[in-house]
Write a structure and sequence with these properties.
The protein contains 3 helices and no strands. By secondary structure, the chain is mainly alpha-helical. It has one domain. The protein is rod-shaped and about 65 Å long.
Length: 76
C-alpha cells in the first residue's frame, strides 16, 4: 500500500481525527474504491476521446474505412 494526501475542509479533518481507527479504515477502503473507479473511468474516457480525435483527423485527411481496410489487407 502507498500513502497519498488529500486536502479536505477543516471540519472534515477534525471529524477524521476524532473518528475511531475502525471507522477511518472503513472510510479509507471506500475512498480507495471510489478513486480507483473514477480514475479507471477517466482513463477509458480519455482513450475514447483520443480515438475520436484520431478518427476525425483520419477522415479529414481522406482516410476512409475502405482505404484503411485496403491498406491493411495489402500483401507485402
Amino acid at each position: 500500500m502507498e500513502r497519498i494526501v488529500l486536502e479536505v475542509g477543516d471540519k472534515t479533518a477534525k471529524a477524521w481525527r476524532n473518528a475511531s481507527a475502525k471507522l477511518r479504515n472503513e472510510i479509507g477502503k471506500t475512498i480507495e474504491q471510489l478513486l480507483s473507479a473514477s480514475l479507471s473511468n477517466t482513463k477509458e474516457a480519455n482513450f475514447e476521446l483520443l480515438l475520436k480525435d484520431a478518427r476525425q483527423e483520419a477522415a479529414k485527411n481522406g482516410l476512409t474505412e475502405e482505404i484503411l481496410n485496403k491498406l491493411l489487407n495489402e500483401e507485402e
